[in-house]
Write the C-alpha cells for this entry.
Amino acid sequence: MTAGEPTDRDLDALARALHDGGVDLLVGTALDFAGVTRSKGVPVRRLPSFATSGMGASPSWVVFCADNGIAFTDGIGVAGDLRLRIDPDRVRPIGDGMAWGPTGYHEQSGERSALCARGRLIDLEERVGAAGLSALMGAELEFTLVAADGAALEQTSWAAYGMRSVVARREFLADLTRTLEEAHVGTEQIHAEYGTDQFEVSLAPLPPVEMADTAVLARILIGLVAARHGLAPSFSPLTFAGGSGNGMHLHLSLARDGRNLFGTGDGPHGIAPEGGSAIGGVLDGLSELLAIYAGSIVSSLRLKPGSWSGAAVCWGLENREAALRFLAATPGNPHGANLELKIVDPSANLYLAATAFLGSALSGIERSLPLPEEVEGDPAETEDFARLRLDAEPSAALDRLASSALAAALFSPAIVAGAVAVRRHELDVFAGSSPDEITGALRLAWS
Ligand code: GLU
Ligand code: MG
C-alpha cells in the first residue's frame, strides 16, 4: 500500500459503519463493452477483501452482450480469471439494505487489467493532468418509464416538458429526487422529456472518473426507485420504434491554469486556441469512435436528423442538431463554457465513451488542430449536409472503430477487439429483424 491508501483497519471500520447503518449487501459494478452494468455482491463485512484481493470474474465478463450472449475474441476466451476490486472511496449506501461501489478489473498479480475500461479513464485523467490541463465532465441521463415487464405504460396524456407529465408521475419523481439527494449524486435537473413517459436527470460536472462512477450510480438508483413503484426505466437508445430516443449526452470543459479553454480566449464565443483544437480533435475522431459513443444496433435507429441526437459531424453555438453543441460562458450558464457531445447514448460503456471524448479532445490539442468552421442553424438545411451527415450505418461504424489508430491508442487493442465483437454479435443476432423486434428485445437491456 502507498501513503493515502486505506489500511485494513480503515476498511474494517467502513464495513462496520455501513453495517451499523443498515447495510447487509455490498454490490460492486462494472460495465461490459456492450454498456450493460454487471455486478458482484458480498456481505458487507467482506468489504476489505473486495477492495484488496478482489472478487473473481471471468475475462469474458467484458464481452457479455446486450442480449446476454458472449462475444469471445482471439484474446478473450473461457480460461483465466480477473479480480474485480471495489473502490472503497466511492462506496455509499443506496437504501434497501444495500451499499454500492464501482469496481475495476485487476490481474491475479494485482496489476490493473488491460481490459479495464475504468482503468483507461483513470490513466487518461492522469495524462490530462500531466499536460497541465484539468477536465470536468457531466452526464445527462434520459430514460423512458415502462412497466416492470417492459410494456408501455397506460397512456398518460403526455405534454413534452410539461407539468401535467410531472403530475402524472409525481410519486415516482418525488421519491427519485429524494433518493438521488440522499446518495449525493449532484442532481442538477429533473424534467419530463419530449417523448411519452420519457424523463431526464442531469448531473453536475465532476472530474471524469468520478463523473462516470456517479452516473452509473444514478442509473442504478433510477432503476431502484422505479422498481419501488412497479416500473422500470428503459435506458435503450430507442425504447419504442417510432418514439423518441434516449441520449446520454456528455459535457466537457477543459482548463489550463484555471482558465477555461472554451471561454477565456479571443476566438469565437471566447474559445482559446487550445479549446479550438480540442473541438477539432473531437470532430476529427467522431466517426471512428461512433461505435463507442452509440454503437448498439438500437443506436443506429436513434441517430436521425431532426431528433436532437446530434447526427451531424459539426459544432455550433447551442446547436441541438450538431454532434457537438457549444455552450458559451454567460451569466445564464453557471458551469462556464463547455462542449456537449449529443451523439452519446445510454447503450455506451460510459468509461469508454468518456475516454473517447476527452481523449480525442486531448489529441486535438496535442496536434494543434484548427477550430473547424461553426455551423449555425440546422445542419440538414445547409449546402454542406452531404459532408456533415453522420454515417450511422452500424457495420461501417464498426469497421472504422476496428481500424482506428486513435481508438487503439486510447483504449488497448484488446478492448477495441472486444468492443467491436459485442456489437457485431448484436448485428448477427438481429439480422433481418424489424425495428419493432429489435427495440422490443433490447428495451430493458441497459436498465
Ligand atoms: N432525446 C434526444 C436524444 O436522443 C435529446 C433531446 C434533448 O436535446 O434533450 O438525444
Ligand atoms: Mg434531454
